[in-house]
Amino acid sequence: MDTVVGHTPLDDNPGGFTGKPVDRVDGPLKVQGKAAYAAEHGGVGDVAYAFPVLATIALGRVIRMDTSAAERAPGVIHVITAKNVPPQDTSSDDAIPQLVGDEIRHYGQPVALVVAKSYEQARHAAGLIRPEYEGKAGRFDLAAGIDGARKPEDLSFAKADTSKGDFDAAYAKSPHQLDVTYTTPFQFHAAMEPHATIASWDGDRLVVQTSNQMPTPGRKALAATLGIEPEKVRLLSAYIGGGFGSKLDVQPDAVLAALAARATGRKVKLALTRQQLFHVVGHRTNTVQRVRLGTDAQGHILAEAHEAWSGNEPGNDEFEPTVLGTRSRYAGEHRRNTHRHVDLDLPPAISMRAPGEAVGLLALEGAMDELAVSLDIDPIELRVRNEPAVDPELGVPFSSRQVVECMREGARRFGWDKRIAKPGQVRDGRWLIGMGMSSAVRGNMLQASKAHVHLDGTGQLTARMAMTDIGTGSYTVFTQIAADLLGLPMERVTILLGDSDFPETPGSGGSFGAASAGSGLYDACMQLRTRLCQSAGIDPTHARFEDGHVSHGDKRVSYSAIAGVDGLSADGGIEPGSNNKKYNQNSYGAFFAEVGVDMDTGEIRLRRMLGVFAAGRILNAKTARSQALGGMIFGVGSALSEEIVLDPRHGAFVNHDLAEYHVPVNADIGPMEAIFLPELDDKANPLKIKGLGEVGISGAGACIANAVYNACGVRIRDYPLTLDKVLAGMAETSS
Q: Which of 126, 397, 528, 677 is deepest in the core (most CB within 10 A)?
């Protein structure tokens, strides 16, 4: 992707499917229970069942493990420990070996695996194993490790540190200064579908039915772990019940199931319990963030610094890219944006929806609201005054950027002009009412992706990609794209996903799935159009593709006649190119919220919320709205309730289920709407779209916090905003 995209067949197709609020093509299967998820493939008697034994210390080693009672238990087929685990390759960076050695690195680490004829038998037998440990004191407190924090290695998509100018000097000279520290807690993905895998070996080839967002990288990871070629692994993941990043990588359930199947010669199912997930599959790290803003009297930013600390297990330099959104959000000549890493003896910290921006903008957008209050400038006007003309760090132009338009349109729709800037001025009975706003930015990425399309003799088009649908609507938007490009009704298009034997894609994650896999599909369909024209003897520049025919003038040839018995196929693909460096590419948005704060209890209620977004071409108005609303609800959870509580004595998360880890439910969400501004980004990809799955959460929580301040005058910088913090703040302001 090195050039600006010109006119495409999707640009002037008012009667087409792309952009329309088309129902999900997989919807009927899902509501009828016919869309089989990972754990639903093995029937009774068809599989053996595995259940893991998890460590009950955070750091140390296993000194003794008696498995004899488990081995004698009814229905038990095999017990696997570090002493008899099948061979694994521990040398590869891609490998994720399990049950290797006696070292315990975190609470909940698998230390044994029981395989039995039934799930109940496996779980019972696992409970008979009581490992004995030699424990050591662990490091669990991020704040306590800040003094010894180190600079981590750069990520593939984010540098650890960036700077421009002389921040210290510019900040010291700034007429107005803001210096605040925000903290965010451990968070968990809490996807509806728990992780599960069914593994079997066909000779020397492994087949896994698993819940994984990225089949191509997942196959490589399994192959690296088991010491076999990637072609010897087939990873199947046709339907996924949510992931939010927890299923980006192959998780221990897949490796353990594969090892159990190899050891027993049987097909093995391993389904982790909801409680096990919190320690086995990773979480979002907590963060400490210091934001400093130096401005002139009119609020123009002269100096900006956003410094973030996060943690991960020792030897794992993957950090939360907290300040990523800050680097291009606001103007300012003198800048410092850094990350520091603290080693923590906890389960691995991994990507969670909008890694970086989701937590970083909680601090930045809160700080901007504080700056607006201290300068007595409207929060939208302050942001407009600091809107950069080009990327403020790199100096490159934006591919497209309508964040100001998002804020202004949102203000108009929400009734922002009725907001009273002074806190505590609006009441509804015992409720203090406030309005808040924030802005959103989320990086737009393009990854290499391939697709194969085949047109059979009946005129039915089938597309194959090693892509996934994690509930976002991939099956539907790909069907829309292919149908429009080939002039077919949607029912004449079949999209096959979730198979690592299909052409490689990056999978679903990072808001790059639709753009990357969709662009590969676009290219494959365009190649097929060319082949159809060649076979029909029609100039492609003048051809029309409609109703299963290619035509020009008086000549009209059916796809069926061209495809014949053997059919007609084409391959396509997309590669990221220089546009990624020539332009800053982001999706943007603005949030507006009205909250009520109970003056007696400190309870916070969301009364209404609006999001306005600019994210390139919208492929499906219905699924896009669903994604945006889901992100906003995710942001409400980040603001008001979501927090994994750590027991600092044992390095264990104590609220490890959905009863105690509080995600928003219907009763928590008031009227909510998402609006999309018209936009085509011709520098992003052939579809002219941008990522949409994560911009909806990026900054949404700060909007709630800013509204709470406007309601009651309490500024809370320690997320989530629980009522005890509200009450403490009210007591301070009234004293």
A: 528
In 46-191, the DSSP E strands lie at 48-54, 60-64, 76-80, 103-104, 110-116, 132-135, 162-164, 176-184
Q: How many CA atoms lie within 13 A of 398 on its CB side?
A: 20
Number of residues assigned to the chain: 735
Does this model's pTM top 0.85? My answer is: yes
Q: Beta partners for 461? A: 455, 493
Give helix 700-712 / helix 723-734 axis angle, nearest 10°: 40
Which residues are registered as beta bridge partners of 295? Answer: 176, 301
pLDDT band at residue 43 under the 50/70/90 scheme: confident
Q: Which of 365, 370, 504, 694 is catalytic?
A: 694
Residue for token digits 């930013």? 301
Per DSSP, the three-state class of 414 is: helix
Distance of CA 211 to the CA centre of its chain: 15
State yes or no: cis peptide before 720, omega within 30 of 0.
yes
Are 628 and 613 contacting, i.e. CB atoms less than 8 angstroms apart? yes
Opening angle at CA 691, ends 208 and 444, nearest 5: 105
Encoded tokens for 43: 């029937």
CA distance 517 to 497: 10
Cα 672 to Cα 674: distance, rounded to the nearest angstrom = 7
CA–CA dist 333, 304 (Å, integer) = 8
132: left (phi over 0), alpha (psi -120 to 50) or beta: beta
432 and 711 Cβ atoms separated by less than 8 Å: yes
Instruction: Clarify whether 642 is annotated catalytic.
Output: no
Cα 26 to chain centroid, rounded: 21
Q: Which residues pair with 604 in a beta bridge?
A: 597
What's the pLDDT tens digit per position in 596-645?
999 999 999 999 999 999 999 999 999 999 999 999 999 999 999 999 99
Beta-bridge mates of residue 493? 461
415-474 pLDDT, tens digit each: 999 999 999 999 999 999 999 999 999 999 999 999 999 999 999 999 999 999 999 999
